[in-house]
Amino acid sequence: MNLKLKSKDCILLVFSIILLVFSVIILVFSVIILVFSVIKYVVFGITISRATIGLIIIIIDFLCVTTVIIYFLSKYINRCLGKYKFWNTLKTYRRQVITISILFTTIFVILILSAISPHPLTIYYKYIGTIRVPDDRSPPSLDHLLGTNDYGYDQLICLIHAMKNSILFGFFVGSVCVAIAIFMGVIGPYIGGVVDDIFSFITNIALAFPVIPFILLLNTMIKVRSMMVVAIVITIFNWPWAARAIRSEVLSLKERNFVKLAKVTGEGKLRIAFFEIVPNLFSYIFLVFIIIIGVAIIIEAGIAMIGLGQQEIVTLGVMLYWSQTFGHVIRNYYFLWLPPGLILTIFIVMIYLVHSSMSQIFNPKLREK
Amino acid sequence: MKEQKKVLKIENLTKIYTSGLFQHKEIIGAQDVSFSINKGEIVSLVGESGSGKTTVANMILRLIKPTSGHVYFNGADITNIKKKDYYRQVQVIFQDPFSSYNYFYKIDRVLKKAINFRIGSLSRIEKNRVVTDTLVQVGINAEEVLNRYPHQLSGGQLQRFLLARILLIKPSLLIADEPTSMIDASSRADILNLLGILRKEEGFSVLFITHDIGQAQYVSDRVIVMEKGIIVEKGLTEDVFLNPSHPYTKNLLASVPSLYRQWDLS
Amino acid sequence: MIDDTILEVNNLRGYYKGTFGTVYAVDDVSFKVNRGEIVAIAGESGCGKSTLIELITGIPRPLLHYEEGSIVVKGVDIYKTDKETLRSEVLCKILGIVPQAALNSLNPVKKVKNFIYDVMRERTGRKPDKKEVNRFITDHFEAIGLEESVLNLYPHELSGGMKQRTVIGIATLWNPKLLIVDEPTSALDVTTQKLVIKMLMDLKKKDIIGTILYISHDLPTLKQICSRCIIMYAGKIVEDGEMDDIIKDAQHPYTKGLISSIASFNPDGSPEGELVCIPGQPPDLRFAPTGCRFYPRCPERMPICEKNYPPFFFPKSKERPVACWLFK
User: Fold this and answer.
1) Alpha-carbon distance A46 to A60, whole Å?
2) Is C170 among the domain residues?
3) Measuring CA to CA, which residue among B100, B81, B98, B99 is closest to residue B90?
4) Over chain A (369 residues), what is each successive 10-residue block's mean pLDDT?
5) Distance from CA of B233 to the nearest CA of C (A)
6) Closest CA to A244 of A210, A193, A200, A290
7) Residues 6+ apart with CB under 8 A from A175
8) Boundaries of CATH 1.10.3720.10 in chain A?
9) Res. B198: pLDDT tops 50
10) Is residue C190 part of a domain?
């Protein structure tokens, strides 16, 4: 395989770079808006709504996570390639660049759109004669680009907020799961002995626990239906498999000579665990993080769709739940049942693409021939 | 006869691995190993794979706990010495140069850790000077090698870099666990010659573990031959290699291919 | 007329091509092997010996590409025959290859004899009759000197030396004319090494194999069994001649450096003189140098060595070719 690009690859590469640049511009623009809101609050005492505060925190958090990820990825890629220059890197790894830039630009665009659109749960009214009734199930028009749903909410705004909520939910669950998995997977085997036995015992029990019966039972016992409960439940069931895989990696890394050399240079056990062993796990942790985001989004959608989830925040699962309870498919309201499912599928496919293309870099056995 | 100072003395060192919960299966790693190393000596520990040489080395390095037996360093039992002080006196070079470095970091990190481990703090300029001097001593060109990642260098350079690390720590005993088996033949000679120079200039004692009889003959003063965890023969190099007394040693020496003689394969 | 040349390689080139660029692994290699010889191909890691063998098999694995040149084995041009004939006729009956670390290729969940059934079925293309095959294999293993009991064992029950000898036995099932062994003893103990080499000598004595091509980096081992030696460096042949002559009186500067850097056991006492190491490393074969590949490390280099690659010269008083401008 030589480095000559075909024309469609060139177009894709240019397109994704344009998207990246475009979204960075929008991001800068919206950060300016948010900064102004903060200044308005501080200087003029005008309060900003809770939602905007939440959004500011979330966007800054997201930026930090993305920067960290891009930094480590670029360091890792540079290390794998040694003397190669940046543009050469982009050209050779165009598949990875494209998938990652598509995923991140989509997330940026969704976040920005949700910041500038009104609240999703606002009811729109119409007049039948002189009586004001909620404008339910009206087909797509210029006012409501995707129509309105059973409660009178605008479908497009609901969809945008649903995407944002699902993504953020995925990120939250992903980061907590990865943190727990790293802790259980690194500390246990590194200390060894009884501690290792206890930790792997806990991991195996959590792994073997049946998920759906647990959720059914939980729903009968707990009266509160909130996002936190769903998040906690999904976190509990997703960290074990990552912890197991990390544990086996750590066990093999422990025997390598650089760990023994670090011991012989007088370093303490915890220092060795976090400075020698964990950096070698970064590639695996990144992949685990990406997968858990996808898994969390889909499980949440599944739980919400059968009605075991929550209703206070609109997510893709909640929209699918509405489609199912109100029978949109049978009544042929295509603009109500098609968008959430389609967006969910597309999102999962994007996550899978990122995972499969990045694992080509990180797993040397899969490198393309 | 002046009594030479014994740097390392091992008495009846044994390591038995047991496995299985109900039926105890015992695997002998090393049994009743006793020898000593004097100051400024290079002693070779020779044996085939499975003879227990690495087990003995790991026990001396306190990476494994012996089942029974004692190790005395400069007269003191090593279990009474604090690990950090012990490691300032006893260091190691491993067989595989590529896995001795953490691929995530640059190789300078190894030297930085070594300098920080030594007693006494130096200023940054002093540290750089010491590092450059040490690299010249082992024969590495500093500009070519510093600021690089491990996968960009060859096996021979990486091993010499590890020797530079040893020079920075200045231990009195160096345990070299097959340092040349993963290096090309044409670069091996340098490592072996360096060990001899280090012994002369710095007064190190070296425990050279190998399965290659030719290298053991070239570099060592005394030889210890091990088979399946037991010492079968020990003595001065010329005595053991020219007039072996144990049948295992005789068989071993007869099976070694040499540039100086031809086997009779009829 | 009996054709004495078993293997003839002419101007062979084989390159690795991938996202890293092109690695000129084997560049313009030519040599001949006659019937009845035991020839050694010696060289350090990265000089191209295993690549050479992969090219000789005719089916180089991806990333390695055959560029040009001809390989003729007993009249059969490897790169002009189709792959099917190569697999079923040439590679088992004329050419026997034991690649590096072949002792790991035994299927761990099958007994050795079942593994050999699979091999025979693959090569001959039809299901062999078990009783007949059993007799065939037992006779062959007995002729080689391996016990019959080996056939009924699983690979993990055999020691390293036994596995290597079994693999050599499998490669010689159809009595090939040329046996190529790639580093058969590097993973074995010293005492088992001698057994494997003895087995190869026996094979030649009993006329089961006519010619052996032995590849290794360990010159003392090569000296024990081989009569002729080809030294390779950075993808090219630098010296080609009689084994004892090369060791006592090496001509090419690389060979001289190699011999003087080997710490070999001397049963008569410690060798005099210090071992001398060759400074530097072998060249990076991604950038094919134009002149002699040993130029940066050669103690006797001349300006002409940097520009042109030396062809084979015959130094006075020797009948063997050496690729060095010193002997023009």
Assistant:
1) 22
2) no
3) B81
4) 46 60 62 68 59 59 61 58 57 75 79 77 84 85 81 87 90 90 86 85 89 83 81 88 89 88 86 84 87 92 86 88 89 88 89 86 58
5) 17
6) A200
7) A65, A289
8) 155-366
9) yes
10) yes
> Does C155 reside within a domain?
no
Cβ(C195)–Cβ(C179) below 8 Å: no
Single out the residue of A303, A333, A335 nearest to residue A316, CA to CA.
A303
Which structural domains are found in chain B, ordered by start?
39-64+84-244 (3.40.50.300)
Min Cα–Cα distance to chain B from C100, Å? 16
The CB-based long-range contact list for A323-329 (8 Å cut-off, 24+ gap) reads: A326/A150
Amino acid at C133: V
| Pick from A211, A215, A205, A213: nearest CA to A243 | A205
Residue closest to C84 by CA, chosen among C52, C127, C129, C122: C122
For residue B134, what are its two tokens? Answer: 């040490």
A271 at B interface, C-beta within 8 A: no
Residue C164 Cα, gap to closest chain B Cα (Å): 17
What is the extent of the structural domain holding C308? 5-101+178-200+208-322
- Would you state the structure tokens that stand for residue C193, as one six-digit string? 């090494």
Give the DSSP H or E segment for C25.
Answer: strand C21-34
Amino acid identity of residue A184, one-letter, is M
- Spell out which residues of chain B touch residue A258, defining contact as CB-CB under 8 Å: 99-102
Angle A278-305/A155-191 helices, nearest 10 degrees?
Answer: 140
Residue of chain A with shortest Cα separation from C21 = A2
- Give the chains touching C; criterion: ≥3 Cβ pairs < 8 Å: A, B
Whether residue A367 contacts residue A292, with contact meaning beta carbons closer than 8 Å, is answered with no
Pick from A75, A197, A261, A274 the residue to mutate for testing the B interface (most B CBs within 10 Å).
A261
* Superfamily covering domain A155-366: MetI-like (1.10.3720.10)
C222 and C40 Cβ atoms separated by less than 8 Å: yes
pLDDT digits (tens, 9 = 90+) for C156-196: 888 888 899 999 999 998 888 899 999 988 888 888 888 89
According to DSSP, residue C286 is labeled: T
- Split into its structural domains, chain C has a count of 1
Q: Tell me the pLDDT tens digit for each residue of A55-83.
A: 665 566 566 656 656 665 566 555 555 54
Taking CA atoms, B222 is separated from A98, A234, A260, A328, in Å, by 63, 65, 27, 89
* A73 touches A286 (CB < 8 A): yes
CA distance A166 to A110: 11
CATH code of the domain in which C264 resides: 3.40.50.300
Sheet order of strands, B230-236 included: B90-93, B173-177, B205-210, B42-46, B222-227, B230-236
Burial of A157 (0-12, 13-18, 19+ CB in 10 A): buried
Report, as an integer, the average pLDDT of B210-229: 90
Inside any domain, residue C234: yes
In chain B, the N- to C-terminal Cα span, in Å, equals 50
> What is the token pair recorded at A217?
């039972």
* Per-residue pLDDT tens digits for B83-118: 888 999 899 999 888 889 988 888 888 888 888 888
Q: In what order do the strands lie in the sheet with C178-182?
A: C95-98, C178-182, C211-216, C38-42, C228-233, C236-242
Coil, strand or helix: which one is B182?
coil
Task: Give the nearest partner residue to B262 out of C190, C224, C275, using CB atoms.
Answer: C224
Is the C-alpha dihedral spanning C250, C253, C254, C259 positive or negative?
positive
DSSP bridge partners of B29: none
CA distance B43 to A40: 79
The single-letter code of the amino acid at B234 is: K
- Give the H/E segment covering residue A56: helix A50-81
CA distance B173 to B205: 5
The pTM of this model reads 0.76
List residues bridging with B42 in a β-sheet: B206
